[in-house]
Amino acid sequence: MISPIYRPFFELTKLVRAFADAIFYTNIVLLVFSYMNRKLFKKEAPLRLFMVVFVFNIILQFIVFFSAPYEKRYLCFFTFMVVILSVPGVPKLAELIQKLSKYIPWLTPKISFTAVMLIIIGISAGKALTPSGNPKRWFKDIPVEIKKHCPPGQMPVLITDSSDERSAYYAKADYIKLSLGDENIRYKKVNGVISEIFPLANRYSIGFLVKRGVNDSYGAWVLMDIPHGFEYFSDNIQNLGGDKVFVLVTMSHKDFSVYFEEKSIPFPSIKFIKEFKYKHGKMIFTLYQGIPPVAKK
Amino acid sequence: MLFAFALRIGRCLVVTHMDKDSVMYIGVGKKLAHDGIKTAFERNPRIPPLYIFTIACGEYMGIDGETAGRAVSVLAGTLLTLAGFMVGWSLFKNANLALISAFLIAVHPFLIVISEDVMRDSLFDTLIAFSLAFALMGSEKGKFWQWGLSGLFAGLATLTRSEGSVMILAIPIWIIVDLFVKRSEFKKTLFKFIPSFFFALLIFCLCTFPVEYILKGTASKWMVFDTRIFGYLKSVAGIEKNKK
User: Fold this and answer.
1) Domains in chain B, number
2) How close B56 comes to chain A (CA, Å)?
């Protein structure tokens, strides 16, 4: 937990890091050389307009940063402008390398320039084409398992405690969120009508099934028009489609069982399918499937 | 541009999953293609319509929404190099430096990464960069068509992300700066650029406000000027507390 005193510094560090990541290190170096070679910019109206837009864009970034959750991708236009500003750094760097020709006779200006460009391509393209250290394989692995177990011709339903919909998307499943007390639920749906409710205290919303809000409830979670809580979990799965319903939790089977043990409720009648482990076991997903409606009888 | 295209396609082959928000874009695009405009935006009423519209076009033509979204991002990301060349040319008046600008944009990792995802950033970046490029050309020669194209691209950028209006807001400030810098040519600058700005503004308005009007009767609550920024400015000024 960060102390409120340090909070602004922490936020500012986050912003500076987002800026540095977006600009990229080669361009930060080029910017320094570009400043040394700034005479290449023609001091005319286009440069003044460019700088006005640049400053305006930075101000806008700060407004967005302090008014909404901030993401690095908001810096795409800023990055474009910084790249343009760093251009004079390339000939300057080539010029500096060229000074080595005193010791390396074959180092012509063309070779120096090509060397600079190749280094930039190598570092930049190398970075861009390197697969991410976190390939998030679960978004593909889990849907494969869901498709394998889903009754043919049926559209699966995925109940998950994750607010990330990608597993449901790749499984072509209807997405339902299982609240484990981490959501402020502000809306409920009754007979097809969504209405606002007094926000539920988190501790009361464990085991509740919610869907993403639409229109006025956009961005919030809406309680489904069904009985709520883990007491009704098995019945809800049956009513939602039995064996076409899958439950995915971001924890081990043992940890998920604790929720039921704490309330002295028997573990729901769902079939354990698989436990997925990633990042050397630090990330665990457990997949279950509802039992067919006939099996209930 | 071919090199830029190859790098972006290469990135598509390396990364297999899309961004968390992409699911929403595809969902809205699919709904737009299959259920019509009336209810399409109910999942995210504030989302600007252009990128969603391109996904919907893909869906309508039988291309999967994810593929259509990626294709738009890759093509836009490739065209960004052309905008980079134009901006470089305006600032340096040198073909070699303009080519270096295009090249640096082609290989920049962050610009490659955003050109691969099913996100509106790549399209937005390219449209706003073209708006800037035409404005820079217009700031020199003051030709109406250049300002018109700048207004058009700023409008299209605003239809992709609300920050697109930054260009239209920045131009009058630049005119004030230029009037101050070129005090000796005050009248000439004034009569040259004020009409140009109003022409760009007119094209911008013609491009954006009719879309806002069309979307009025639907679930969309998108506005040309972002309500978040207005809300923030109001809260800073103490007029009204930001409800969000």
Assistant:
1) 1
2) 17
